[in-house]
Design goal:
single chain, mainly alpha, 3% strand, globular
């Protein structure tokens, strides 16, 4: 594995750890026998955040109620798992994490647009 790839994976692991990712093996994906640097939900969150950052490039605006709904979806999955009502799965964690990350960064974009409009 190249030094750049190892450095990137280590950076993701450090960011995930600092942001509260538990990095539990049973809640993480593995590729070629190696554990992802963050859990399945945080993998989804990172993917959702990156996707949300691309939306302005394509002039796609996500409405505020959609942002809240997407964040709520991730929170609801976490709540069901934490309360013991239903055990989540890694694919579901990935999807709800993606939804939450996308919703959060889309909300940030709404705020940035509103602030830049007021300063012009």
């Amino acid at each position: 594995m190249s030094k750049l790839r190892l450095s990137l994976l280590e950076t993701i692991r450090i960011i995930g750890n600092a942001s509260g990712c538990h990095q539990m093996p049973e809640r993480s994906f593995f590729y070629k026998g190696k554990q992802f640097p963050v859990c399945a939900r945080c993998t989804g969150v990172f993917m959702g955040q990156i996707t949300a950052l691309l939306m302005p490039v394509f002039r796609i605006r996500v409405p505020f109620p959609v942002c809240v709904s997407l964040l709520g979806l991730m929170g609801f999955d976490w709540f069901l798992q934490e309360s013991g009502v239903r055990q989540s799965t890694n694919p579901r964690r990935l999807l709800t994490g993606f939804a939450g990350g996308f919703g959060l960064f889309s909300f940030y974009i709404i705020i940035i647009r509103a602030l830049t409009r007021k300063t012009q």
